[in-house]
Design goal:
Layout: E1 15-17, E2 31-34, E3 39-45, E4 49-53, E5 59-66, E6 70-77, E7 83-91, E8 94-99, E9 105-108, E10 113-117, E11 120-125, E12 128-137, E13 140-148, H1 152-162, H2 167-178, H3 187-199, E14 201-202, E15 212-213, E16 223-224, H4 225-235, H5 240-251, E17 263-265, E18 268-269, H6 278-289, H7 292-312, E19 314-315, E20 318-322, H8 347-366, H9 370-390, E21 392-393, E22 398-399, E23 401-402, E24 409-410, H10 420-423, H11 428-439, E25 463-464, E26 469-470, H12 471-483, H13 487-508, E27 514-515, E28 527-528, E29 538-539, H14 545-556
Helix pairs in contact: 3-14, 4-5, 4-6, 4-14, 5-6, 6-7, 6-8, 7-8, 8-9, 12-13
């Protein structure tokens, strides 16, 4: 494999865990994030553990591979040959590695009780037990870090067995996944995206009967409706069978009335939904697989979900207008659109549903359901008319959410105003005016397009959902630009997006949930869902699956 296809950037917060691609991922798997100041990991699950290798000499550190389940450093002493430090995820509950006397492995916990078991260091608390074992291997040293929810003594035999694993063979098996990036444009960025996609892939767990994906193994951990649709878009170019599985995992939790929950956990489902984008996802997957049997299996469920949205999210009995029942249903719950609640005619929900109607019409035609196709086209026309009659703001030249009487348009101006381009809801004259707004560098065509809130709107803030760029929404607008013949603008949007993601990957080692549209603030410093200084909220999410999937979509599609 070409060496340039290996991800090589170490950065605080990047994810490390065993992937469901390689075997059972387990409901209680070890999940780690990279430490800031040491060559090792913190484990938010099972909680408050750390594993690192501690230098006994001054070393120059050169990352050689930084994937999601394989990390390797070349460590250069002042006057001696370099030594290699390797971490590998062996299974869901075991990390193995090789090091040298210059970098002995260490583990610690501030909360769990520390004890010694048969010469191994163990940390035990209510979440379970972790154990670090070491053994010589020629002039090197092997180590194994294992976890179990109970019975610390059983860990010793597991750790001893892990110490005998053929590390070279394990390394080569993980190398094969990254080989897909070799020879492609932006090979290292693509390899990083593949690593992020792999770490966020899980095997069936409890009530989740199919292989599934999560936005990020930490902090989200669970299965989310619309995220899965975007993940499938990238996975269809890597492993279409996995893409099919992750969509089935969502559809498995559909109620008899057609409702699909927005979040699915091993012990229960949420009571709200998320944007109707599943038919769009299936349509795109079919472009690659041409699998009619899968289409026949899922089509009735896609129909049931579309009908549920139509019947349960109408706005004020107006045909063609729809509303979110809760801000979190939109996937953009921190948007200033929802500062006064969610009860308005939503331009984005109209767009998502209209685009899914288009997808359903195409799928129906493939399945020779001509009457169905006619019905979906009529439904699309219904939303087209409702959106253009009620939500178009002629003075501003864009679509805005609508209030109760259908005459007052709601500001602020957000990325939702642009989504009618993606859904075929903007007639040519209005599309041209909307494109003028989109191209304005003071509004949406920022150094990194497209901000989630108009850059000059008073509601704009460098906080996730209130201004920063989501790459999966850029993908939708990219599709909208292409359907309106704006190939050059679409290509520029794609290039600027990839260039910014690549630049920040090289600086931080991570792919992030959101990015600063001015391309100045590090993604690491963007607030998420309220400023931490106010005692709540958190930071931008690192190694985010949605961003990785769009990178793979654009570089492999």
């Amino acid at each position: 494999m070409a060496v340039e296809a290996l991800p090589r950037r170490w950065g605080e917060g990047l994810l490390f865990a065993f992937s469901g691609v390689d075997g059972p991922s387990g409901p209680q798997a070890l999940i780690a994030t990279a430490l800031r100041d040491r060559l090792g990991f913190a484990f938010p699950w099972p909680g408050d553990r750390e594993l690192w290798c501690e230098s006994r000499a001054r070393l120059q550190i050169h990352p050689q591979v930084v994937a999601s389940d394989w990390v390797e450093f070349s460590c250069q002493p002042a006057s001696a040959p370099p030594v290699r430090l390797t971490y590998l995820a062996l299974d869901a509950c075991t990390v193995v590695g090789e090091t040298s006397a210059l970098l002995p492995p260490r583990s610690a916990s501030r909360a769990a009780a520390t004890t010694e078991v048969e010469g191994c260091v163990a940390h035990v608390d209510a979440a379970g037990a972790t154990l670090l074992a070491t053994a010589p291997a020629g002039d090197r040293r092997r180590f194994a870090f294992v976890y179990a929810s109970s019975d610390v003594r059983a860990l010793v035999s597991r750790a001893r067995a892990a110490l005998t694993v053929d590390v070279e063979m394990l390394r080569e098996a993980k190398r094969a996944w990254l080989a897909r990036a070799a020879g492609r444009p932006r090979a290292e960025l693509l390899a990083k995206a593949l690593a992020v996609m792999k770490v966020n892939a899980c095997t069936p767990t409890g009530r989740i009967r199919h292989c599934w994906t999560t936005p990020d193994r930490w902090p989200h951990r669970y299965l989310w409706l619309w995220n899965s649709a975007f993940h499938a878009g990238g996975w269809r170019h890597i492993d279409p069978a996995w893409a099919s599985e992750m969509l089935l995992a969502v559809l498995d939790h559909q109620r008899d009335d057609g409702f699909i929950p927005h979040c699915i956990q091993p012990d229960g489902d949420s009571t709200i939904t998320q944007p109707p984008v599943l038919a769009w996802a299936v349509e795109r997957l079919f472009e690659v697989t041409e699998d009619r049997s899968f289409l026949r299996e899922v089509y009735p469920r896609l129909v049931a979900f579309a009908e549920w949205v139509r019947e349960n999210r109408p706005f004020a009995d107006e045909f063609g207008l729809y509303t979110w029942a809760h801000a979190a249903e939109s996937g953009m719950e921190r948007s200033p659109r929802f500062d006064q609640g969610a009860g308005f005619a939503a331009a984005d929900l109209a767009s998502y549903l209209a685009r899914d109607y288009e997808a359903l019409a195409r799928l129906a035609n493939i399945l020779d359901r001509r009457e169905d196709a006619d019905r979906w086209r009529a439904r699309h026309r219904e939303i087209f008319e409702g959106t253009n009659y009620h939500l178009w703001h002629d003075d501003l030249g864009l679509y805005l959410d609508g209030d109760w009487d259908g005459t007052q348009r709601r500001e602020p101006v957000t990325i939702a105003s642009c989504l009618p381009l993606y859904a075929g809801l903007a007639p040519p004259s209005r599309a041209a005016r909307l494109l003028e707004r989109l191209r304005d560098p003071d509004q949406f065509w920022t150094p990194l397009p497209l901000p989630s809130v108009d850059r000059r709107d008073p509601a704009y803030a460098p906080e996730v959902g209130r201004g920063p760029v989501w790459l999966h929404l850029n993908l939708l607008i990219y599709e909208g630009l292409r359907r309106h013949g704006e190939e050059g603008l679409a290509a520029e949007l794609k290039e600027r997006s990839l260039a910014a993601v690549e630049a920040w990957y090289r600086r931080t080692g991570c792919l992030w949930e959101c990015y600063d549209p001015d391309d100045v603030i590090s993604p690491r410093d963007l607030d998420r869902k309220a400023h931490p200084a106010r005692g709540r909220g958190g930071t931008n999410v690192a190694d985010y699956h949605g961003t990785a999937a769009v990178v793979a979509e654009w570089l492999m599609g």
